[in-house]
Specification:
Strand order of the largest sheet: 8-9-10-7-6-11
Number of strands: 11
Oligomer: single chain
Structural class: alpha/beta
Order of helices and strands: HHHHEHEHEEHEEHEHHEEEHEH
Organism: Algibacter miyuki
InterPro entries: Ald_DH/histidinol_DH (IPR016161), CoA_reduct_LuxC (IPR008670)
Helix content: 25-40%
Shape: globular
Radius of gyration: 21 Å
Number of helices: 12
Keywords: NADP
Largest sheet: 6 strands, mixed
Protein name: Acyl-CoA reductase
CATH topology of the largest domain: Aldehyde Dehydrogenase, Chain A, domain 1
C-alpha cells in the first residue's frame, strides 16, 4: 500500500462510523461493505455498553462522531502533509491501550498504520469490543491491511517499538520493561481551566462539556479550575446545571454519594448543587463528580506554576491566558494533530 491507499481506507472507515455517531443510528446508502458490517457493529456497540457501565450510548456516539469528523480526506491530508513517508522502514509497533473512554487508543492505532507499520495491540479489558471489529472493516475496504493488524491478550513479544498508556505506577513499570525499545510512555495527566470572572453563560455552558463529558474520566477532561481571589462560584453552578440529569446514571450517582460522604465525614469544606461538588485542593486529579479549584494572585504567577507542572497537564482551557490554550468546550474535540502529552507520535514512528 502507498500512503494514499492507506488514507483512502481510513476515509471509508470514517464514512462507516458516521452512521453510528448520532442519537439515532442511521444506515446510509453507498457505504462499502455495509451489508457485512452494519448490523454486526450495532451489536458490538450494545456489547460495549453492557460490558462497561461508563460507556453509555451517548458517550460512545460522541466518540464515534469525533472520529467520523476527523477521518476525512481533507483532515488526513492536513495532518500528514508535514511528514516524509518515502523512506519508512516497516516495523511492528506494540500499543498498550488505556480503557477510560471509548476508543481512547484509536489515534495511536491510526498513526501506526498510516505510517506504514504493522501494529500489535494490547487492549484494556474495559474497552475491547469496538476496535477489533473496526480493524476487520479496514481489512475489507483495503486488503493490504491484512496481516498488518494483530490483537493479543498475552505478554507482548516480537515487536520493534512500543506506545504505552497507563497510570503513573504502570508507566514506571513500562519504562523499565521497555527500556531496550524505542518508546512513547504516557502516564496520568489532567486538564485545567483558568477563569477570570469575566466568563459568559455560554463560556460556562461550554466548560461544562469539558468537565462532564465521559463523566470526567478522560485526560482531556477539566478536573481543576484556577480562579482569582474572592471569586464567586454562582455563575459556574448556574452554567453547568443543565448537566443535572447525569445523576440518572447509577455509576455516576454512586460516586457522587460516596465522595460527598467522604468529604462530609472528613469535615472538608466544599460546595455542591445536588450532582456536582467543588473543593479547594492543590491536586490536579479530582474524583468523579468533583471539581477542584485553587485561587491565584496574578496571571504571571499562575503561568509560572502551570509551566512548572506541565508534565501533569494535558490541556489548559482559557480565553486569552496562554499561547497553547484550548477554547471552552473544545477539549474533547481534538484535531488529528493534537498529540497526547504534546509528543508527536507520527514523527516518532517515522524515525524508528
Amino acid at each position: 500500500m502507498n500512503l494514499q491507499e492507506r488514507i483512502n481506507a481510513f476515509v471509508k472507515l470514517g464514512e462507516f462510523l458516521s452512521q453510528f455517531s448520532n442519537e439515532v443510528i442511521q444506515k446510509k446508502d453507498n457505504i462499502e461493505h455495509n451489508d457485512v458490517f452494519f448490523d454486526g457493529f450495532k451489536h458490538q456497540l450494545k456489547l460495549a455498553e453492557e460490558h462497561n457501565g461508563w460507556f453509555t450510548k451517548e458517550n460512545i456516539a460522541f466518540a464515534l462522531s469525533g472520529w467520523a469528523n476527523s477521518l476525512t480526506q481533507a483532515n488526513l491530508k492536513i495532518w500528514l502533509k508535514p511528514y516524509n513517508f518515502e523512506t519508512v522502514n516497516q516495523k511492528k509497533v506494540a500499543i498498550i491501550m488505556a480503557g477510560n473512554i471509548p476508543l481512547v487508543g484509536f489515534h495511536d492505532f491510526l498513526a501506526v498504520l498510516i505510517s506504514g507499520h504493522h501494529v500489535l495491540v494490547k487492549q484494556s479489558s474495559n474497552d475491547k469490543q469496538l476496535l477489533p471489529y473496526l480493524a476487520k472493516y479496514l481489512e475489507y475496504v483495503e486488503p493490504g491491511f491484512k496481516g498488518c493488524i494483530e490483537f493479543t491478550e498475552e505478554k507482548l513479544t516480537h515487536f520493534d517499538a512500543v506506545i504505552a498508556t497507563g497510570s503513573n505506577n504502570t508507566a514506571r513499570y513500562f519504562e523499565f520493561y521497555f527500556k531496550g525499545k524505542p518508546s512513547i510512555i504516557r502516564n496520568n495527566r489532567n486538564s485545567v481551566a483558568v477563569l477570570t470572572g469575566n466568563e459568559t453563560p455560554e463560556d460556562f455552558k461550554n466548560l461544562s462539556e469539558d468537565i462532564f463529558r465521559y463523566y470526567g474520566l478522560g485526560c482531556r477532561n477539566v478536573s481543576k479550575i484556577f480562579v482569582p481571589k474572592g471569586y464567586k462560584f454562582d455563575s459556574l453552578f448556574e452554567g453547568v446545571y443543565h448537566w443535572h440529569p447525569i445523576m440518572d446514571k447509577a455509576k455516576y450517582a454512586n460516586n457522587y454519594d460516596y465522595n460527598k460522604a467522604v468529604y462530609l465525614m472528613s469535615e472538608f469544606d466544599m460546595l455542591e448543587n445536588g450532582f456536582f461538588m467543588i473543593k479547594e485542593d492543590k491536586s490536579f486529579a479530582s474524583p468523579i463528580a468533583t471539581l477542584f479549584y485553587e485561587y491565584y494572585d496574578s496571571t504571571e504567577a499562575l503561568n509560572k506554576k502551570l509551566t512548572e507542572d506541565a508534565d501533569k497537564i494535558q490541556c489548559i482551557v482559557a480565553n486569552g491566558f496562554t499561547e497553547n490554550e484550548i477554547a471552552f468546550g473544545a477539549t474533547q474535540k481534538p484535531e488529528l494533530w493534537d498529540y497526547a502529552d504534546s509528543v508527536d507520535s507520527v514523527e516518532f514512528l517515522l524515525a524508528i
